[in-house]
Amino acid sequence: MADSLSSGLGEEKEKEKEDREWNRKTAKTERNKEKDGLTETLSTNDKNGGSMGKKRNLSDLSLVRFITTELTRGYFLEHNEAKYTERRERVYTCLRIPKELEKLMTFGFFLCLDAFLYVFTLLPLRVILALLRLLTLPCCGLGGSRLLQPAQVCDVLKGFIMVLCYSMMSYVDYSMMYHLIRGQSVIKLYIIYNMLEVADRLFSSFGQDILDALYWTATEPKEKKRAHIGVIPHFLMAVLYVFLHAILIMVQATTLNVAFNSHNKSLLTIMMSNNFVEIKGSVFKKFEKNNLFQMSNSDIKERFTNYILLLIVCLRNMEQFSWNPDHLWVLFPDVVMVIASEVAVDVVKHAFITKFNDISADVYGEYRASLAFDLVSSRQKNAYTDYSDSVSRRMGFIPLPLALLLIRVVTSSVKIQGSLSFMCVLLFYLGMITLKVLNSIVLLGRSCVFVKEANMEEKLFDPPPSAVSSRVNSRAHRTKHVHIVPQQEQTADKGGISLASHLTQTANTAESTAPTLPKSDSDTFLTTPDDEDDDKIINVDTGLEGGLEHRTQKKDLLEIDRFTICGNRID
Q1: Is the dihedral of CA 79, 83, 85, 88 positive or negative?
Q2: Phi, psi torsion values for 556, nearest 5 degrees
Q3: DSSP state of 555
Q4: What is the mean pLDDT of residues 54-83?
Q5: The dihedral of CA 541, 545, 547, 548: what is its sign?
Q6: pTM (2 decimals)?
């Protein structure tokens, strides 16, 4: 009996243990369900609670509960407030780009128009005044050391270049060129048009250097050592350049005219679609503020050139239809399509470039202030360049070839006969002078406002850069970058000067020889820090890199006077 009682008590204890274990597992399962919404499968050996656990697991993992969880699941955007605020600012920047870009484009368009009208209006008058000074010089006597002032010499050279190139252009048959181009296939014309665009940029890049070399060679002080080939070779090079560039623009205008007059308009559509290829080539590249400034100048020049090409096409077509005004409305849709595609491509391109490179839309105000600074500085007494030349250097827009082609087209399209026609031409010339003067006054006033808003007045009183100072600065820049270790080792007896201290002394010595220019707060406003890796000092003898590093110099927007997209380099 004692054995049976002990065995019975043992079984009851085992059952109590099993019950406690089952209760513990059930409580644990409930807690996990409250935390995660997940259940654990109970042991299959549990005879009393196994079936109940399986039923609960199946009910918790049902499809209805999953769908309910997905429909009622929530999240809080304020947990990542910085990221979403940045995304919203990017959207606002993209929305501001069209307005800010068109402000810059409009200002740049009138700058190009001012330089373009200068060739037709004030340049002939200045040439006449310079020639009158030469003719009256024997009577009045030599009042100074120069026969003509440097600006007058440049004006006379421009006038002679225009006259010689116009006489050469008179032998070019526009009609023969038109029919020669029209006989080509559509694909060939498309390739030709693309080649002409590239050639135009290359000519614009190198042409201003040729003209600047001619102006400096003709006006260089005589006491300096002769380091050039002579004025006449430079003059012949300039005449050849202007003539070839004018021929290139004429072929470009003729190709566009063929596209306008094609029956199915397929060539015009292909040429307009070529603008959108420009988005692919520029949007996915890294751009700094200075690179974007160069691209903006390129777009201003390209848009103004396209407007002049469209004007030439309209003149040629109106001449063929005896100046019938009804034909102008036939050309109007195609002209609007060309202009609209150009504007759309520029807006989309700049919007995504600023988005991908985290550039603010306010940068276009800086670009506008920089262009305004060029205009204001060219009006000062100590100006070292003409305004039209500064526009040419800044934007790559050279008005001489384009003006020469427009004169050639107008003289061949419009026949002047009788005194009434001469009176109309005189009135038209006076109207152009009036437009030029009004445009210059408005531009000068707006430019002064932009310069004041950018706090750039102090830079107007900086002395112009000279060749000596630029050489000294370049030498100092090279000394900072590379230092050649001498062959002999520096011993501790001679001072123990390290590479770092020697480099610092050399750089300081070079910097002290360079003239210091006054700086203003606008230097920091118009400069962009270079985020690239710092340059390292290389030991020439060992080929090893030293441990010293320094940051590259900042590039001021006012120092960018090259159309670098054409292939020029900024030093």
Answers
A1: negative
A2: -85, 140
A3: E
A4: 77
A5: positive
A6: 0.70
